[in-house]
Amino acid sequence: MQAGDKLTFLLSLVPYLIERDRVSVTEVADHFGVAPQQIRDAVSLIAVSGVPGETTTYQSEDLFDIAWDDFLDNDQIVLTNQVAIDDSPRFSAREASALIAGLQYLSALPENADRSAIASLTSKLSLGASAVPSQVAVEGSETDATLALIRESVASGVQLRFDYLGSRGESESRSVDPLRVESVDADWYLRGWCHLREAVRTFRLDRMSNPVVTTLPISHHAADVTLPDTLFEPSADDLVVTIDVASAAEPLLADYIPDGAQRSEHDGRVRTTVRVSHYHGLKRLITSMPGVATVIEPAEARAAVAHWAAEGAARYR
Amino acid sequence: MVLVPPEIRIPVEERLFSLVLALLATENGLTKTEILSTVQGYRQAFNHSGENANLERKFERDKDDIRELGVPLETVQSPGDPGNNQNLRYRIPRGAYELPAEISFSAEETTLLNLAAMVWREGSLSAESRRAMLKLRSLGVAADEPVIGYAPRLRVRDAAFDPLNAALGRHERVRFAYLKPGEAESRVREVDPHALVQHQGRWHLYAAEVGTGVMKTYLLRRIVGKVQSTGATFDPPTGDPSADSLRELEEVWNGNSAIVEVEPGSDAATRLTKRRGTVVTDDGALELHYSDANIFADELAGFGPEVLVISPQTLRDAVRSRLETTAADHG
Predict the structure, then answer these.
(1) A113 in contact with chain B, both atoms CB, cutoff 8 A
(2) Min CA distance, A236 vs chain B (Å)?
(3) R_g over Cα of chain B
(4) Same domain, B82 and B118
(5) pLDDT, tens digit, for every residue of B209-256?
(6) Is B3 within the bounds of a domain?
(7) At B175, which helix (H) or strand (E)?
């Protein structure tokens, strides 16, 4: 933690403790989502802190104090003297604006169908900030109908069925136990247990058609399945492709560049490798970055891109 | 001979915490000398009989750091002696520091705010939302368990974002090189940033051009090189610039429309039909909206033979030439 984060933590912890007569270290750690030792360290510091006071020498009445026996022997926190602080701090202008923009982004969620909830939260955050929140905003969107169906099927514990177009171009009917909804910018994904593939799969919402909430019970619950943290999981079957990309556009390919990939830069272009599960995805990706990204090898990958682009160009002749 | 006590190492957070406590506790404010000579973390290094230049610099930095965190640290002029810096007093007014008592968040609202904070997992906004979450937890409300797990995420891949966001908060004029599509050389722009907005997955800067005052929209992706602060500041804009900016972008989006044919059952057909604002015309073609012809042409080119642009002609030509470029580059 940076000093600024540590200070914010101390200023947040004190009012929380003031509101509680007695609380265990583990309960506080769970609530703040930090390690118990971090709570103990913070409490130890708070307990010897205070204000210079009238004598300017930090006399005991000018310091916080805790019931030390409870703390040291039982891991319990009991604040016995408090100074200077009564209430939680305000949000900074930028903190408030980060949350407000985050809320705007989430406006597609069915939980947010009631727009007044977001408006009321936004106004609370503005009133609770120490200065006018800075102007960072994200375009709002309509409540997504598919997301609403996903939520409905989770709430009723039943499978969701939809037609799904794979990036190879085949359409199949899938029955899925929804596990988690993820998003990256404007793209939304469902991760779920696919009964057709009998494995966890990731589905793009905009590739789903005709979604239906079925009456079939799910077999896999979110609590029982450990989902990997990253949306795009590398697999041993991945194809490794060498590409050249304009330096400025390299971040656009960050999801595909594996950790520790070889990388050399020359004349504003970077040569590196990307991992893809098949060339169908690669040809679409590279063709959407014309003049910016070029496949170097293998020849088969180059040919897949060349063919895709040439076929597209041929439609204009 | 003077005995110098061994220097006692006081952690930074202890010094900052003690400073905040001392400034919250004072009604009338403390002078710099009072702070440096009495507050924990400074007093240990205070020289009662000489220069304290290093300590003063440390205090100046701490003051800035604390303000960056949203703590309203005030400077009060001495009424009898205005303009005398030695008599400036510092304090943190309780009312401006504490979250107003009438502001509370329900468990449901706390859940939503947790999700909103989760959106930012990279860049400076992730640090801001992490601190905001600490303050929210300070209120002691436990979040509801949502029906389905969400993992929302907004990318901030543009290197220009963090410096522009910092300049936005401080109302600082900035300078950057901007490359317009179709132009070979970038040109340096000097602007007052009024808002940063994300529209259709891309970040835009809404800023007043220095000299003309005309509001302009810049795509962060086209900013090349570093964003530099000019050191100048400007008066905070009135009104709601981010809403103005999103409205303008929306007007551009609505104003640009293209007709494309898509291969039935293809990825292009599924995804473009689902795109916001798409209308299926009587003969089965799609009428699509877009904000930036160059970016949209890139996107359409990615669909290869699944898409045929009918109109406008400029977009048709742009997609065609992109496909030809890619085919040639891979030939």
Answers:
(1) no
(2) 25
(3) 27
(4) no
(5) 999 999 999 999 889 889 999 999 999 888 899 999 999 999 999 999
(6) no
(7) strand B172-178
